[in-house]
Amino acid sequence: MDIIREYLAVCWLNSDPLELPRSGSLFRKNLLIYFIVGYLLQANMIDDPFESLYEISFQIILMLSFISLMLMLNNTMYAFIQVCTAFIFSANIVSVFVVPVMVWLTVSEDVISYYIMFILFVWYFAIVTYILKLTLVVNLAASMVLALFYFIVTYLGAFGLGQLV
Questions:
Q1: DSSP secondary structure string, 85-103?
Q2: CA distance 132 to 87
Q3: What is the pLDDT of residue 126?
Q4: What are phi and psi of 9, to 5 degrees?
Q5: What whole-number distance in Å separates Cα of residue 19 and Cα of residue 79?
Q6: Lowest-pLDDT range, 40-44, 57-61, 77-81, 147-151?
Q7: Long-range contacts for 36-43 (Cβ within 8 Å, ≥24 apart)?
């Protein structure tokens, strides 16, 4: 339970991802949760279970590749498990809030639900920016650009690959 609190601190921008404990078990469990939740969200949006399956698979592959490349270029590959777990854990925490809002948005299309989705996206963007800033030891502007690039590569890249298949 202490390890979850330490990773949860990243979501509140209070912990250094490089100093988090390494746990392969937590990484695998979070990756599984990320896959299941991502698959369900994708299936809700595009109504094709097979397309959802390979799109979330592409997303995970691109995310892990992006993080690997980033850490290799920064010579911090030793922190792969911690950084990946921080990325995935924070995505899972944000999705705990996104899922009910997504259901609300699907059912009612209320304007407030769009605002809340935007706020949740900004929160996730802030978390990714924070992780990149501390991991790569760069300034805020550079980490924001890298976070934007991360989202483009991971989410738009998965969508693009999904369209090609």
A1: HHHHHHHHHHHHHHHHHHH
A2: 10
A3: 97
A4: -60, -30
A5: 9
A6: 40-44
A7: 37/92, 37/95, 37/99, 38/95, 40/99, 41/95, 41/98, 41/99, 41/102
How far apart are the C-alpha atoms of 121 and 123, rounded to whole Å?
A: 5
Residues 6+ apart with CB under 8 A from 127: 10, 11, 13, 90, 94
Of 37-41, 94-98, 103-107, give the lowest mean pLDDT range: 103-107
Query: Which residues are CB-neighbours of 139 under 8 A, at least 6 positions away?
Result: 133
- Structure tokens, 60: 């995970």
Q: Token digits for 103?
A: 């259901």
Q: Per this entry, what is the length of the chain? A: 165
Task: Give the Cα separation of 92 and 112 in Å (integer).
Answer: 22
Rounded distance between C-alpha atoms, residue 81 and residue 83, angstroms: 6
Question: What amino acid is encoded at 91 in this protein?
Answer: A
Question: CA 153 to CA 146: how far, in whole Å?
Answer: 10
Single-letter code of the amino acid located at 126: A
> The tokens of 107 are what?
């059912």
Side chain identity, residue 12: W
